[in-house]
Specification:
Blueprint: H1 4-7, E1 28-34, H2 40-52, E2 56-62, H3 73-81, H4 94-98, E3 107-110, E4 127-130, H5 142-165, H6 173-182
Parallel strand pairs: 1-2, 1-3, 3-4
Helix pairs in contact: 2-5, 3-5
Length: 187
C-alpha cells in the first residue's frame, strides 16, 4: 500500500508555457474546499475517487470554524443513488490539509466563493480554480434538498470527467489551469 508521501508530487515550471512535470507521475492530489465539508466537497471527493482513483488522490476540507461533524445525509443518499462509495473519514478542516505532513496539493478546487478570502496559503502554490456551487445544505425542504444534491453531483461529475481526461503531462501549466477554471462555467 502506498503512503501519502509516495502519492504526492508537484507541478513544476513557470506559468508561461513550461511543461508540467511531477516528482511522482502516478497520482495528482486534489483538494475540494467548501464551508462545512459535509456535502459539496464530499460529493466532489467521492466522485473523483470513483472516476479515477489511480491518477488522482482526492480530499475534501472545510472552514475550521464551520466544519460539520458528519457527512450530510443528502450527500450520502445522492452518492448511494449513483452507486458511488463514500469513504468513512473524519471531516477535515483546511488547516489539516495545509499543515506540515499533509499531502501536497497539485490542485485546489474551491466550491464556495465565500471561503476564498479565508483559506490558508496552500503549500507549493498549487493550481487553483473556483467552481462556485450553491450552498444546498441550507435547503430546508427534504425533497428539494434531495433533488439539489443529485443535481450538484451531476454537475460535479461532468466537470470531473473532463478533468480526468485532460492531458496532464503534455499541456503547459497556464493552459491547463485555464481549462480547469473554465470548467466552472459548465452547467
Amino acid at each position: 500500500m502506498k503512503t501519502m508521501a509516495q502519492g504526492q508530487g508537484s507541478i513544476g515550471g513557470s506559468a508561461t508555457g513550461a511543461r508540467m512535470t511531477r516528482v511522482n507521475p502516478q497520482r495528482f492530489v486534489v483538494f475540494f474546499v467548501s464551508q462545512r465539508c459535509s456535502l459539496r466537497s464530499v460529493l466532489a471527493e467521492a466522485c473523483l475517487t470513483h472516476l479515477c482513483e489511480k491518477r488522482f488522490a482526492a480530499y475534501s476540507c472545510g472552514n475550521p470554524h464551520r466544519l460539520a461533524h458528519e457527512v450530510h445525509p443528502a450527500a450520502v443518499n445522492a452518492l448511494a443513488g449513483a452507486n458511488i462509495s463514500l469513504r468513512s473519514q473524519p471531516r477535515r478542516s483546511w488547516n489539516d490539509l495545509s499543515s506540515l505532513g499533509a499531502p501536497k496539493a497539485d490542485f485546489v478546487i474551491t466550491l464556495d466563493e465565500d471561503t476564498l478570502p479565508r483559506q490558508p496559503r496552500w503549500p507549493g502554490q498549487p493550481n487553483s480554480a473556483l467552481w462556485a456551487l450553491p450552498d444546498i445544505a441550507e435547503i430546508s425542504d427534504p425533497e428539494a434538498l434531495a433533488h439539489a444534491s443529485i443535481q450538484t453531483l451531476y454537475v460535479l461529475r461532468r466537470r470531473l470527467e473532463l478533468l480526468v481526461n485532460l492531458s496532464l503531462r503534455s499541456a503547459d501549466r497556464a493552459a491547463f489551469q485555464m481549462d480547469v477554471r473554465d470548467m466552472a462555467f459548465m452547467p
